[in-house]
Amino acid sequence: MKRALSILALASLCACGGGGGGGSGGGFMPAPAAEAPAPVVEAPVVQAAPSVKPTVPPANLLNPSCVTGPDGLLVACSLEPSPWPIGVTVPASGFVTFTNRTGGYLQINSIEAFTGETTHWGEFCAALNFGSNRQDVAGIGEVACTTKAENANYIPLTFGTGTGLLVEPGGVVILGSKPATVAHTFALMVAPNTTGVQVWRAPAVDEVIPCNGLPQYTAWNPWKNDSGYTKHVSGAYIYNESGNMTNRAELSGHACIYVLNPDGTPRVSQCNDSLRVRGEATFATIEVFPGESVAAQAVNTCSAPYEWDYAAFIQVW
């Protein structure tokens, strides 16, 4: 099940990246000078996890000024826009940082991971500006995660339909994987920012939940829109491990995204099957007015001795 991603090593980077954070509790990353155009939103889609043997990295993978540290585990690269995938192979127990030194805003449209591992469950995650499996400030910390079953390949991490993860000048994207015995090759599609989104993690902190045969809920952690202007939510990337060994990628209960009035009462409840299935979930755009909050919660039932985990990485612009 899901574990912290090389947290001690990642945390040693401290809150990396210049100009990364917002204020306290529900702060925001700096927005581009001009707001991004509205993303294209399609009808809700349920995306099942593929069941294929691991594939190989792209033959045209570019290595953008990557340097391996003296310990052999930390690889530092530049984050650069490219029509071809950029990336690098990271050794077992290692991780990689991609730093935006271009002076402009970039967006990451997808992140793929490749490994020849065919025996064990695996996981890879991305963090922005701070290496952690949580967010203490909205959009800073873990922004995407996915898993694979034995003898299977990862689903690519994506950030909405026609949108990408917004990375500000000086921003740092950190990638790592489990199990620690397997090397991973990462491949990123990067472009100048046009439709970049922030990613708010719900719940804010990763929690592996022991199954007890009863309905169990994820933590309730709303993020407040204190930006002073209207935000929009149009999708989420869903991470989960259901604790059901016959269907790991789908929770047994419902999952919903909420917009809350300033007094904490729900104004919008967005629930559909794609929010409880691992992969990309899309829905009609929801406005989040100043002072309102965004939250997500899921419920699942599974039996001991297994465990389950869930996160909605909500795409906000």
Overview of this protein structure:
The chain is mainly beta. The protein is 2% helix and 41% strand. The protein contains 1 helix and 22 strands. Strands 3, 5, 9, 10, 12, 13, 14, 17, 20 and 22 form a 10-stranded mixed sheet that branches. The radius of gyration is 18 Å and the shape is globular.
Largest sheet: 10 strands, mixed
- Overall geometric form: globular
Query: In sequence order, what are the helices and strands, one letter per element?
Result: HEEEEEEEEEEEEEEEEEEEEEE
What is the first-to-last residue Cα distance? 31 Å
What are the key terms here?
single chain, mainly beta, ten-stranded mixed beta sheet, 1 helix, 22 strands
What's the structural blueprint in terms of helices and strands?
Layout: H1 7-11, E1 67-68, E2 74-78, E3 86-90, E4 95-99, E5 106-114, E6 122-128, E7 135-137, E8 140-148, E9 157-158, E10 164-167, E11 172-178, E12 184-192, E13 196-202, E14 209-210, E15 216-217, E16 223-224, E17 231-241, E18 255-260, E19 266-271, E20 279-288, E21 293-300, E22 307-316
Parallel strand pairs: 2-4, 10-13
Antiparallel strand pairs: 1-2, 3-12, 4-11, 5-9, 5-10, 5-12, 6-8, 6-11, 7-8, 13-22, 14-22, 15-21, 16-21, 17-20, 17-22, 18-19, 18-21
